[in-house]
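Quick review question:
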């Protein structure tokens, strides 16, 4: 039940990162198993190294607007510097990380053991499952990156200490050894039900008629009847179970409390645990309206570990507790002593510092907004800070639990000469929706005057820049449609408007469009890069906006 940081994150900003060129977080495309490429570095063996590996923990930082992941040791010292787009926990001396749309397996010294375009799971007893994007099947690789079992399974569980695993193929489940030999065959009834199998051999099944869930063991014996809206396997033979909801309340299942049941079907606790996590090293976590708590296998709060303010999860990794609270990662010892946490202040080369301020109007809404310090003119600094706070919080602070909305807003910052660029990212996810809505905005601020520049401020008034930029964007659209099969919507008038979303660097202008505005939602934020040299005649080089970031 180990938690992967950034690898299978709930995709809050997946669309943003996949479509905007200046975001460094890779998507998780999978490729054929043949792309698994070992690197000429000796593989790390299990045993002592595996035991030591639990002392490295993934961390997340933001640098130049990019989400980066690395590792610290149990003292909080950075051992592998943040350079990855995603990072998993170490298992048996190896961890899976993501960089440049490629999955890498590294050892505790950061050496690359293998590369793959396929998603790779954690290693367990020498083997890790991987997925094949062409067939959507699973197979297994060893620590040298060799495919030992081809991607032929619909489900592939982790190998246990007995060196066996549960797999499924063509509707049946099997227990196999590490050579793929079938040791047992299990036939679960498939009429009016489909299954989600666990490594431990518990089948959480969903009724196709009532859409309610239950649990069977791998031999088909019923543990819990299909009378619950949601069931999650917590590990240790325990289940998180949510009550049956009325038909008009089904969309609220994600925010309803769970009770803990054991493998015999006995209810151990009341239905009182919100955001109940899986068990790791005999501990799980849950939240209430304000805090996140660590609990034991009986559901009792661990009083020796301090509750954490905010909503998230607590995961025990050896002697360290990983706290993922309000989308910020931190680490503590079991007695609550701090080991490592994200920096709340970013120092820019100019001497300006940017503090991250958190506000939470309710447990499902978290907003981080920037507060500047160190500007030469404190009156300008106050004007900027007041406006930034309004831009980030004015609408969000009105949200209540009745809005049935989860919100995650954050920011990054960079500076070019006197121009401060604030990048605001957000994700709005209504309870029960198929997917949320990603948000992306940029604010361009003159640190000398406090002016928030607009798109039109970059151009000469009579230059007909809208039409020219629209023609450039249309040309790039056609090229993308021809090259990548991209499809853009027809719009009345011009795609580009006076209120155009944009980003800029010292050398180029990037136009981008809101998710779903001119292309299918899955396309994210379509963007078009235009060098300033191509539109030199349109730019108002005597204007304050241009001068703020150019020599």
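Suggested answer, residue by residue:
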């Amino acid at each position: 039940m180990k938690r992967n940081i950034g690898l299978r994150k709930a995709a809050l900003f997946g669309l943003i990162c996949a479509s905007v060129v200046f975001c460094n977080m890779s998507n998780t495309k999978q490729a054929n198993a043949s792309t698994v490429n070992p690197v000429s570095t000796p593989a790390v063996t299990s045993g002592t190294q595996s035991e030591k590996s639990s002392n490295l923990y993934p961390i997340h930082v933001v640098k130049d607007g990019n989400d980066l992941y690395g590792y610290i040791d149990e003292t909080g010292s950075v051992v592998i510097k943040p350079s990855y787009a995603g990072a998993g926990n170490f298992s048996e001396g190896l961890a899976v990380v993501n960089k440049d749309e490629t999955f890498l397996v590294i050892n505790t010294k950061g050496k690359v053991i293998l590369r793959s375009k396929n998603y790779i799971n954690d290693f367990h007893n020498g083997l890790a499952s991987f997925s094949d994007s062409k067939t959507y099947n699973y197979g297994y690789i060893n620590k040298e990156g060799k495919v030992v079992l081809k991607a032929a399974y619909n489900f592939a569980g982790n190998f246990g200490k007995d060196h066996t695993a549960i797999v499924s193929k063509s509707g049946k489940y099997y227990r196999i050894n590490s050579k793929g030999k079938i040791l047992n065959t299990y036939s679960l009834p498939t009429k009016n039900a489909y299954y989600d199998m666990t490594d431990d051999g518990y089948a959480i099944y969903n009724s196709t008629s009532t859409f309610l869930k239950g649990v069977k063991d791998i031999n088909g014996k019923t543990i819990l009847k299909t009378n619950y809206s949601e069931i999650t396997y917590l590990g240790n033979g325990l289940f998180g179970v949510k009550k049956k909801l009325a038909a008009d309340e089904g969309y609220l299942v994600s925010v309803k409390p769970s009770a803990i049941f054991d493998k015999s079907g006995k209810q151990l606790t009341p239905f009182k645990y919100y955001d109940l996590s899986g068990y790791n090293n005999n501990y799980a976590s849950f939240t209430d309206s304000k805090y996140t708590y660590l609990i034991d296998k009986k559901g009792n709060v661990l009083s020796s570990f301090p509750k954490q303010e905010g909503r998230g999860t607590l995961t025990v990794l050896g002697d360290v507790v990983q706290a993922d609270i309000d989308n910020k990662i931190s680490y503590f010892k079991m007695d609550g002593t701090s080991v490592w946490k994200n920096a709340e202040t970013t120092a820019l080369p100019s001497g300006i510092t940017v503090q991250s301020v958190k506000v939470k109007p309710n447990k499902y809404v978290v907003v981080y907004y920037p507060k500047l310090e160190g500007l030469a003119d404190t009156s300008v600094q106050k004007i900027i800070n007041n406006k930034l706070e309004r831009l980030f919080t004015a609408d969000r602070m009105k949200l209540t639990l009745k809005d049935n909305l989860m919100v995650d807003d954050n920011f990054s910052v960079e500076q070019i000469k006197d121009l401060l660029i604030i990048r605001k990212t957000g994700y709005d996810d209504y309870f029960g929706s198929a997917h949320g809505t990603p948000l992306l905005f940029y604010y361009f601020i003159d640190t000398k005057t406090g002016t928030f520049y607009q798109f039109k401020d970059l151009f000469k008034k009579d230059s007909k820049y809208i039409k020219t930029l629209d023609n450039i964007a249309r040309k790039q659209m056609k090229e993308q449609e021809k090259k990548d099969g991209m499809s853009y919507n027809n719009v009345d008038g011009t795609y580009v408007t006076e209120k155009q979303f944009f980003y800029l660097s010292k050398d180029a202008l990037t136009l981008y469009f809101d998710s779903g505005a001119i292309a299918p939602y899955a396309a994210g934020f379509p963007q078009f890069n235009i060098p300033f040299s191509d539109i030199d005649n349109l730019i108002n080089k005597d204007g304050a906006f241009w001068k703020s970031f150019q020599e």
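Why it works: Helices lie at 14-19, 48-53, 378-393, 465-484, 544-549. The two ends are 53 Å apart (CA to CA).
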